[in-house]
Amino acid sequence: MAIAPDAQPETGTDTEKSKAARPRHPEKAHRADTPILRKPAWIRVKAPGNAGFRETENIVRDNRLVTVCQEAGCPNIGECWAKKHASFMIMGDTCTRACAFCNVSTGMPKGLDFLEPERVATAVARMGLNHVVVTSVDRDDLADGGAAHFAATIKAIRAASPTTTVEVLTPDFLRKDGAVETVVEAKPDVFNHNLETVPGLYLTVRPGARYFHSIRLLQRVKELDPTMFTKSGIMVGLGEKRHEIQQLMDDLRSADVDFLTIGQYLQPSRKHHPVDRFVEPSEFKALEQIAYAKGFLMVSATPLTRSSHHAGDDFAKLRAARVAAKGY
């Protein structure tokens, strides 16, 4: 059931108590604990807390919004929020999937709040964002997977902040006919959908998804709008092999994907998929060079790379790279 226009969503202490009362990952409770490896020096970041961070925190709270920065436990939150950059997660804080790597709460989500797109747009305008990333939880419970809500959010941002470029990071819309078309029709500047890992690890890492469906989704975006930038990302350190990563790159290039991100997987808890190893910075550099050689216009490959990290700066570089390579 959707929230009525005059309804008052849960806020403050009541919401915090409600979230604390339910297990964050009920599907993982039965799993045996796995050790959490000590992070190497190159993966450590400073704790957040300056004035810019607090201002961003206030804007997010005042507009009753959810961010992937908080829900996914992103290590870059201190850096990004200090610069008044935040990635908004629409359609609630509870995902219908149970991916083994993810820190977002799982369970049955609440109904959509149809006022949320306007609140996201208000926050974008208040922050003065030149570029914004909008992502979501998986909403397998919705007939369109939340595609219309993505479109409404894009349109609201366009109205409130016409010069802001919009990047969407969508679910896979598995078995949701017409969903990709709905989002593409709303004209985001970047359509991002992450593969997350190599196909051989999907059953243990991303069991609710289908690798080649995700490849097809990205290919379909280009069929609908050849000028729309497409993007995808993976994590390393889950147990993948170098040749599997290179094959994944080829699969993405076969779908004409423009931008690839590669970052280190970090284990949120002892119940999550363990870190197989911490990949050295030199290996990320080598993967970046391979990806460029395969034809990607833009590659970001570092231990701390995340889909939305430096997304605005990277989008400017992406546009420049296409002009240089293709003339438009």
TrEMBL record:
InterPro entries: Aldolase_TIM, Elp3/MiaA/NifB-like_rSAM, Lipoyl_synth, rSAM, rSAM_sf
Binding site for [4Fe-4S] cluster 2: 95, 99, 102
Compositionally biased spans, kind Basic and acidic residues: 14-31
Pathway: Protein modification; protein lipoylation via endogenous pathway; protein N(6)-(lipoyl)lysine from octanoyl-[acyl-carrier-protein]: step 2/2
GO molecular function terms noted in the UniProt entry: 4 iron, 4 sulfur cluster binding; lipoate synthase activity; metal ion binding
GO term, biological process aspect, one: protein lipoylation
EC number(s) from the headed UniProt entry: 2.8.1.8
Positions of region (Disordered): 1-31
Subcellular location(s) per record: Cytoplasm
Main localization, broad class: cytoplasm
Record's catalysed reaction(s): [[Fe-S] cluster scaffold protein carrying a second [4Fe-4S](2+) cluster] + N(6)-octanoyl-L-lysyl-[protein] + 2 oxidized [2Fe-2S]-[ferredoxin] + 2 S-adenosyl-L-methionine + 4 H(+) = [[Fe-S] cluster scaffold protein] + N(6)-[(R)-dihydrolipoyl]-L-lysyl-[protein] + 4 Fe(3+) + 2 hydrogen sulfide + 2 5'-deoxyadenosine + 2 L-methionine + 2 reduced [2Fe-2S]-[ferredoxin]
Swiss-Prot/TrEMBL keywords: 4Fe-4S, Cytoplasm, Iron, Iron-sulfur, Metal-binding, S-adenosyl-L-methionine, Transferase
Top-level EC class as recorded in UniProt: transferase
Chain ranges of the Radical SAM core domain: 81-297
Required co-factors: [4Fe-4S] cluster
Residues that bind [4Fe-4S] cluster 1: 69, 74, 80, 308
Coiled-coil ranges (or none): none
Pfam families: Radical_SAM
GO cellular component: cytoplasm
Cofactor binding summary note: Binds 2 [4Fe-4S] clusters per subunit. One cluster is coordinated with 3 cysteines and an exchangeable S-adenosyl-L-methionine.
PANTHER family according to UniProt: LIPOYL SYNTHASE, LIPOYL SYNTHASE, MITOCHONDRIAL
Family: Belongs to the radical SAM superfamily. Lipoyl synthase family.
Protein name: Lipoyl synthase
Organism for this UniProt entry: Rhodobium orientis
Gene, per the UniProt record: lipA
